[in-house]
Amino acid sequence: MILMLLLLTQAFLSVLSEEPPPPPQHVHVNKWLLTWTPPTAETDLTYTVQSSFHSDEWTDVPICVHTASTSCDVALTAAENEHGCVMLRVQAERRGLKSTPVQACSSQSDSCTPEVSLSGRPGFLTIHLSRNHSLAQNHAAHAAHRVHYSREGDTTQLSEDSYSSFTLPQLEPGQRYCAQVEYILHSRPVGPPSCSLCELVPYSSETGTVVKPVVVVCVFIVLVLVLTGTAYVFICQQRRIKQWLRPPYAIPEDFHCQRHFPVSTYSPTEEHFDAITFVTPVRSLRPT
C-alpha cells in the first residue's frame, strides 16, 4: 500500500514538473490543405487543428483532433462560412499538456488571403496592396486590409488598417522590416493572413554623396603628385635623362691605326711665283 502511494505521488509530481511541448513550426495553408512541421523529434506528440470565422472564438476541427498526422484537409470547414474563408491554427499536445497555438498563414494570394509585396527606400517601407479583390467588390468600404509590421527580430508588432497601398515613414536605415497582411470585414479578420514578408530599408543616398567628394579629392591629390613629380624630372633632371637616353658608345682600341688621312696632292709647280734672290734691310727713320 505504501509502495503504491509512493508511485502515485511520484507520477503526480512528474506530471506537475513536466513542461508543455514546444509549438509546431511552419504552419501553412495552401488551397485549404493545412500542413505543419513537428517542433521536435518526439514521437508521442499529437496535434489539434482549430478554426475561427472572423471572431475570437476558436473551435476544434472534428477530423483533426489529437491526430498524429502533420496535415489536415480543412476545405469542408472553410465551406461552412458564407465567404468561404476561415482562420486556422494548430497546437501540439503531450499527455494533456498543450503548446501555444500557432496561426496558419498562406503564401499564395486568393479570395481569402491578400496579395502583398514590399519595397524599401531610405527611411521608408512601402506595402503594396491591391484594392481589386472579391471582398471589396462585394462589401465596398466595409472590407479593408490589416497590416501587422515590426522590425525583424522584434516581438512587438504594430498594426494599421488600410484600403490600399501605403508607406511606413521614419524607419531605421539598414534594418529589415517585416509585414503580414490579412483581410478584415467590419473590422474583423477574415481568412488566413499572408505569410510574413521582410524587406531591407536602405541607407540614405546622402551617405553615398559623402563618399564621392572623398574619392574626388583623393584622385585630385594623386594627379597633383604625379604631375609635380613629372615636371621635376623633366626640368631638373634633364642631364640625367640625356645620359639615360644616350646609346652606349666606345672608341675602338685600334682607332688610331685604322684612321686614314687624305694625302695632299699639292704640287709647287702648279703655281707661278717669283723667286727672291736677295733681301735689303730697311734702315729705321727714327732719329738717333
Task: Describe this structure as you would to a colleague.
It is a single chain. The chain is of the alpha+beta class. Helix content is 25%, strand content 28%. It is built from 6 helices and 16 strands. Strands 3, 4, 6, 7 and 8 form a 5-stranded antiparallel β-sheet that branches. A hairpin with a 2-residue loop joins strand 6 and strand 7. The protein is elongated and about 170 Å long. The N and C termini lie far apart (181 Å). About 2% of the residues have low confidence.
Give the DSSP E fraction (strand runs of 2 or more residues). Answer: 25-35%
The span between the termini is: 181 Å
Q: What does the main sheet amount to?
A: 5 strands, antiparallel
- Which bin fits the share of residues in helices? 10-25%
What is the N-to-C succession of helices and strands? Answer: HEEEEEHEEEEEHEEEEEEHHH
Rounded to an integer in angstroms, the radius of gyration calculated over CA atoms is: 50 Å
> Which spans have pLDDT < 50 for at least 5 consecutive residues?
207-211
General shape? elongated
Number of strands: 16
What's the tally of helices?
6
Structural class per helix/strand content? alpha+beta
Residue-averaged pLDDT: 82
List descriptors.
single chain, 288 residues, alpha+beta, five-stranded antiparallel sheet, 6 helices
